Amino acid sequence: MKKEVGSHLSRKLIKRRKELDLINQKLLSLLNQRLRISLEIGKVKKEMGKKIYDAEREKEILDRLKRKNRGPLKEKGLEEIFATIMKVCRQSQIHTYRPSKPKDLR
Q: Which CATH class name applies to 2-97?
């Protein structure tokens, strides 16, 4: 009997892990899509002479997400996750669109 219960739990664990693997793949795809759009925005900002970092915009994004969040993700976790996502996108924009330095002509 114990072996049957263990086997059932093992199958359940494997099934749930496969579900998480699928979700992780979807998240990865969405994160890459978000980064591509963020890089396009960085290009426009550079062309407009605007700074990459916009604290007000990031605050608006976090505030909107907090209002829409129905859990079980806690507000602190939401802030940490999205602050990290925005930081990575911002760093990619800066790295991609930073002003180029003049080359040494020696």
A: mainly alpha
